[in-house]
Specification:
Strand order of the largest sheet: 6-7-8-3-9-10
Largest sheet: 6 strands, mixed
Distance between the termini: 31 Å
Structural class: alpha/beta
CATH architecture: 3-Layer(aba) Sandwich
Number of domains: 1
Oligomer: single chain
Bound molecules: adenosine-5'-triphosphate
CATH superfamily: P-loop containing nucleotide triphosphate hydrolases
Shape: globular
Radius of gyration: 19 Å
Number of strands: 10
Length: about 300
C-alpha cells in the first residue's frame, strides 16, 4: 500500500497496461515468446515499512533490462523486503506499505488505480523454498497462471506453452513422460526449475528470485545458475543471495545493502557492475563485507 502523493497521481496518466484487468492484459499476449527486450525497474527514494517499523530507507536504484542484478548484504538489512516491494508483494503483509516510487519502464507500479495482480503477472517471483502447488500435476503447475489469465486458452496452445516453459527451464526431458504426476514428487532442484517454468510461462518482464538456490545442493545450484544466464536473454532478473560466489558468478550488477546501527533501517550502500563491486568497491563497508570482515 503506497502513501498517496502528487507524484503517484501524475504517473497515473501513463500506466494503462498495469491497470488493464488481468484477463484482458493476457488475452492479447502473443502465443510465441516475445522479442528479447525486457523492462527496466527504477526505484526512487523508496522507504519500506512494516506498520511502524521502518525496514528500508531511501533506496534509489536502476535495475537494467536483460541483466542480472544481485542484492547482497548482511542478514536483516532488507534485501527480501526490497525485492518484494518491486512487485507489490510487500503489501500482502498486514500493515506493510511503501513510500516512494517503483517504475517499470517509467510507469509507477504503485500509481493509484494500478492492479497489484497485474503488476505481479508482469513481475514474477521465485522463492527460496521451491513451492509447486502440491496437489497439481507437473503440467497443471506450469499451466496454472495461464489458465487464470486466459480462461479460453485452447489445449493445443496450452500444450505448446507448457512445453516451451519446461524446455526453457531445462526440465522438459526429465518430465515429459510424467506430466500428469504431482509436481511435489520431483527433486528439490527439479521443483525449483518447475517453479521457474511456472513463473516464466506467463511471459513476465521481470523475474525476482529470493535466494532461489539456498535449499538446493551444489549440482542443482549450478543448474539454476546456468538457467539464470539463459533467462536474462528474455527477462530482467533480480536475485537475492547470501552466496557471494553466486553473486560474482551469476550477476552483471551487484547492489550492497547495509544497516549502520542496530535498529536503523537498511540502506543501499552502492550498486555497480559486479566486477567492480568485487574488485574495487567505492565504499569501505562494501569492501569489509565482501572480504568477509563482517556479515
Ligand atoms: N513480515 C514482517 N513483519 C515485520 N518485520 C519484518 C517482516 N519481514 C521482515 N521484517 C523485518 O524487516 C527487516 C528486513 O528483513 P528482510 O527479511 O527483508 O532482510 P534480509 O536482508 O532479506 O534478511 P535475510 O538475509 O536474513 O533474509 C528485518 O528487521 C526483519 O526482521
Amino acid at each position: 500500500m503506497s502513501q498517496p502523493s502528487a507524484d503517484v497521481r501524475d504517473a497515473n496518466a501513463t500506466d494503462a497496461p498495469l491497470q488493464a484487468p488481468l484477463g484482458d492484459a493476457a488475452t492479447s499476449a502473443p502465443a510465441e515468446a516475445p522479442a528479447n527486450v525486457a523492462k527496466s525497474i527504477e526505484a526512487r527514494d523508496l522507504d519500506i515499512y512494516y506498520g511502524g517499523f521502518h525496514a528500508v530507507a531511501g533506496v534509489s536504484m536502476t535495475i537494467r533490462p536483460n541483466k542480472v542484478t544481485a542484492l547482497i548484504g548482511s542478514s536483516g538489512c532488507g534485501k527480501s523486503t526490497f525485492l518484494r516491494s518491486l512487485n507489490r508483494m510487500h503489501e500482502l503483509v498486514k500493515g506493510a506499505y511503501v513510500d516512494g516510487k517503483v517504475e517499470l519502464d517509467g510507469r509507477d507500479i504503485y500509481a493509484a488505480g494500478t492492479d497489484p495482480v497485474a503488476v505481479r503477472r508482469q513481475i514474477g517471483m521465485v522463492f527460496q523454498q521451491p513451492n509447486p502447488f502440491p496437489t497439481m500435476s507437473i503440467y497443471d503447475n506450469v499451466a496454472a497462471g495461464l489458465r487464470l489469465n486466459r480462461r479460453k486458452i485452447k489445449k493445443p496452445e496450452l500444450d505448446e506453452v507448457v512445453e516451451r516453459a519446461l524446455r526453457g527451464a531445462h526440465l522438459w526431458t526429465e518430465v515429459k513422460d510424467r506430466l500428469d504426476k504431482p509436481g511435489s514428487g520431483l527433486s528439490g532442484g527439479q521443483q525449483q526449475r518447475l517453479c521457474i517454468a511456472r513463473a516464466t510461462a506467463v511471459e513476465p518482464d521481470v523475474l525476482l528470485m529470493d535466494e532461489p538456490c539456498s535449499a538446493l545442493d551444489p549440482i542443482a545450484t549450478v543448474a539454476i545458475e546456468s538457467l539464470i544466464a539463459e533467462l536474462k536473454e528474455r527477462f530482467t532478473i533480480v536475485i537475492v543471495t547470501h552466496n557471494m560466489q553466486q553473486a560474482a558468478r551469476a550477476s552483471d550488477y551487484t547492489a550492497f545493502f547495509n544497516i549502520e546501527r542496530s535498529g536503523d533501517p537498511g540502506r543501499l550502500v552502492e550498486i555497480d557492475e559486479t566486477q567492480t563491486i568485487f574488485s574495487t568497491p567505492a565504499s569501505p563497508a562494501t569492501e569489509a563485507y565482501i572480504s568477509g570482515r563482517f556479515g
